[in-house]
Amino acid sequence: MSADFRANEPEVFEMEIESNRIPRQLSIAFGISLVLHVVLLGSLAMIKFADRIQAFTTITSGLEDEIDPDQYKFDSTISDQLGSDSDINSFAASQEAAVQLSKDPQKEVERTLAEDVDVPTPRTEEMIQPAKSDMLANVATTGATEHPGGVEGAVDRLAWEIANSLREKKTLVVWMFDVSPSLSSRRAAIADRVENVYKQLNALNVTADKALKSAVVVYGERTNILTKEPIDDPTDLVRQVRSIKSEASGNENTFAAVTQTAKHFQKYRTDMHRDIMIIIVTDEAGSDAPQFLETAIVSTKRYGMRCYCVGDAAPFGRDTTEAPFTLESGETVLGVMHRGPETLYPESLRLAYWGTNDYDLQNMSSGFGPYALTRLCSETNGLYFIANEGRGKTFDPQTMRNYAPDYRPIAMIDHDINGNKAKSCLINVARTLRVDSVPLPRLEFPADNDTVLRTAIGEAQRPAAELEYKLNALKAMLEPGEKDRAKIKDARSRAGYDLAMGRVLALQARSFGYNMMLAEMKSSPKKFDKAGSNQWRLVPSKDINSGANTKKLANKAMEYLKRVIDDHPNTPWQMLAERELGSPMGWEWKESHFNPAPAGMGGGNNKPGPKFIEVEDPVTKKKKKVMVNAEPQRRDI
Question: How far is C-alpha 585 from the geometric centre of its chain's CA atoms?
Answer without folding.
Answer: 37
